[in-house]
Amino acid sequence: MRVIDVESDSPLLDVVYDELLVPNFPAHELVTPAALRAGLKSGLQWISAVVRDCRPDGAAVAEWSPDSGVLLLSYLAVRRDLRSGGIGGALLAEVLTGWQQRVRPLLTLAEIEHPAAHTPDADKGDQSARLRFYARHGARVLDVPYFQPALRPGAARVPGLVLALLAAAPELADADVVPSEPVRAYMRQYFEESEGGVPDDPATTALFAAMVPAGIRLLPMDDIAALPCTTNV
Question: From CA 63, how far away is CA 43, in angstroms rounded?
């Protein structure tokens, strides 16, 4: 499978957004096409896509925060009729290799829907299967009550997500905890860019309070009932 970068001026960008991201993610979880294009132009976002016959069959979208050292896999999507065919695995392999070489992140994270809070959908997939997919590649969940901030004015926060660790810098590779400060710095930036600042509502306060100085525990994905799940945001 050929994995390529999709540039901000590529005609493939609209195809990735309309045919991969929109069918796979609820509207409140998606940035706008203009915001995605601007992120690509800034160099702080990029898209890796599996392309066949000039058509993207799957894509992974990166969001890089050099100030915190955190890299976020913000979206990974595969065409519905091509799932379970290795495309997702090829994209995740690129995340775990090429992306690591590109920016040398301290932590590589992903937002994943919690099966207890979201219903499987023929278009958007099965949350339990998605967790199993990431678990097979060594991902673990940060023990924080996570939710996605509102991405733009008028959008809603997205409850019932877990924040997963996909990869870490070599010095943290075998750790059972991750340092809190990079995660705290990244989340502070996330809230400032999406909601205009870090609010003091109960859900946000609980999220930041879980980032204790001793570090954030990493939880295995196989016990879904033990994973944190925030539904009231």
Answer: 9
Partner residues linked to 49 by β-bridges = 4, 59
Given a contact cutoff of 8 angstroms between Cβ atoms, the answer to whether 107 and 97 are in contact is no
Q: At what angle do helices 87-96 and 127-136 cross, to 10 degrees?
A: 50
Per residue in 161-178, pLDDT tens? 999 999 999 999 889 999
pTM of this prediction exceeds 0.85: yes
Q: Residue 51: helix, strand or coil by DSSP?
A: strand
Radius of gyration of the chain (CA): 17
DSSP secondary structure code for residue 8 in this structure: T
Closest CA to 198 of 69, 141, 207, 152: 207
Q: How far apart are the first and last CA of the chain?
A: 40
CA–CA dist 201, 66 (Å, integer): 28
Contact 149, 157 (CB under 8 A): yes
Q: Tens digits of per-residue pLDDT, 25-65?
A: 999 999 999 999 999 999 999 999 999 998 999 999 999 99
pLDDT tens-place string over residues 127-149: 999 999 999 999 999 999 999 99
Look up residue 86 and give its DSSP letter. Answer: S
Say if residues 146 and 161 touch (Cβ distance below 8 Å).
yes
The domain defined by 3-226 carries CATH number 3.40.630.30: yes
Report the C-alpha gap between 191 and 213 in whole angstroms: 20
